[in-house]
Amino acid sequence: MKYIFLVFFAYVSLTACDSQQLEEPSPPAYVQNVPVDWAHYQKYKQTAKKDYIKQNWIAYEWFTNFPFSETDGIPYILLKLLPVIAPEYWGSDDNFLDAVGLFDDERQADYPVARGIGISALSRKEPFSNIDYASFTCAACHIGRVRDENDKIRYIDGGVNAEFNIVQFRVRLYKTIQKIYGQEKDPAKQVKNAIAEFSKALE
Q1: What count of other Cβ atoms lies within 10 Å of the Cβ of residue 174?
Q2: What does the angle CA 186 – CA 71 – CA 139 come to, to the nearest 5 degrees?
Q3: Could you write out the DSSP letters of every residue in 55-85?
Q4: Ranges of each domain in the chain
Q5: What is the pTM of this model?
Q6: What is the pLDDT along the chain (203 residues), one digit of tens a residue?
Q7: What residues have CB less than 8 Å from 144, skipping those under 6 apart?
């Protein structure tokens, strides 16, 4: 340890002595010029992105649809029942998760829930070894969307979903649970209330 300190102090001393001789590095270019043919550049970038995703589609599937866990999260069937139990806290009939900024991706119209929610059945090797859990995927935060000059939705894979508010999701989930519990303080009775409410919603 003593040797390490001696080497360090020797380096500092030599650097201090030679500081008068060192040239200051040029600053990085923080601003780059916009390409002259911006439309052509955009088309090129979009094509390059599509080609990259096509070549790496397995990784893309993991990024977009596979949940963070196969054994944790919200049981999928309970997630789908939230707007039945507390419609005042959840979004539209078409997509109850639009209340927290998760949108339906028209590129996968047959997916059963909003973009950014993964279902454990997608990655589980044994299909009936456990119940289906729902949890967030990378896409919840990292696939955004904008409306282009032709009034069409353009998806930004790997960008930012500026609509998603995970805190709002947790707040609405908390309020839904509080609605189920009501004034009940006994944990055992709270669980009994929850089972009754979800069973009623399922019917």
Answers
A1: 11
A2: 110
A3: HTHHHHHHHHT--S-SS-SEEHHHHHHHHHH
A4: 38-202
A5: 0.75
A6: 444 444 444 444 544 454 456 677 677 666 667 677 878 888 888 899 899 999 999 999 999 998 888 788 999 999 999 999 999 999 999 999 999 999 999 999 889 999 999 998 887 778 778 889 999 999 999 999 999 888 999 999 999 999 999 999 999 999 999 999 999 999 999 999 999 999 999 99
A7: 155, 156, 159, 160, 161, 162, 163
